[in-house]
Amino acid sequence: MRQHYRLIHERSTSLGLLVIVVLISVCFLLRTDLAHSALQSREQTCSEGWYITGYYVPREDELPDATEQISVEREGDLNFSQKFLNEIRTEGWGITRFGWALGYYSGRWHRSDTGPLDAGGNVLAEGIIAIDRALIPPDAHVQISTLPTPWAAKTFRATDIGNGIVGQHIDVFTGIGLAAEQETFRITSENNRVCFMRD
Q: Which contacts qualify for 124-127: CB closer than 8 Å, 24 or more apart?
């Protein structure tokens, strides 16, 4: 009888060990699969034929002109240079003679004390790009090796979007003022090579 119980005990112990080994193997396979998926999601994707443009933030003190009165939220009616306002209508934001940023979106004028903002409400910084999120995921790290120096060596961050940014089109934020505007002309080009890596 004891021998019978010992045989049952040995079999159940063997079965328990087998279950543990199977569970460990399954966990290992799942972990390997998850690690492979994570690695795949960080793989670099490259393609050709991209159209690159640039956008910048104008400064009111660099664009003197006859004034135009506008209504700014939280400020009321104020006068600004017409050239300055026209540039903001195109570029999105500008730096006023008062030092704060003036933006135009949703058909209204807005003030920002922190600086010009991207579509997500983050302060714009050189190297931010506007992308079509159907092709490049938000916050992806992007390189455009075919741009002129120093832009070819930069890693851009895809945090912005724009109304005219559709398909293989990237808009690069080049900075503030007339020098930054000149950079927008210098980098505007077709048939660029773009590589990006998802976070």
A: 124/57, 124/93, 124/160, 124/173, 125/173, 126/173, 126/174, 126/175, 127/154, 127/155, 127/156, 127/157, 127/172, 127/173
Reading across the β-sheet that carries 76-81, which strands appear in turn? Answer: 76-81, 67-72, 108-112, 101-105, 93-95
Exposure pattern of 106-123 as b/e (b: 16+ CB <10 Å)? eeebbeeeeebbbeeeee
pLDDT per position as a tens digit, 158-186: 999 988 899 999 999 999 999 999 999 99
Separation between Cα atoms, residue 64 and residue 74, nearest integer Å: 24
Q: What is the DSSP string of 126-189?
A: TTEEE--TTTS-TT-EEE-TTSPTTGGG--EEEEE--TT--SSEEEEEEEESHHHHHHHHHH-E
CB-based burial, 132-146: b 16+ in 10 Å, e otherwise:
eeebbeeebebbbeb
Element (H, E) at 94: strand 93-95
- Which tens digits make up the pLDDT trace of 109-167? 999 999 999 988 999 998 999 999 999 999 999 999 999 999 999 999 999 998 889 99
CA triplet 39, 44, 45: central angle to 5 degrees?
A: 125
pTM of structure? 0.76
Q: Which amino acid is at 119?
A: A
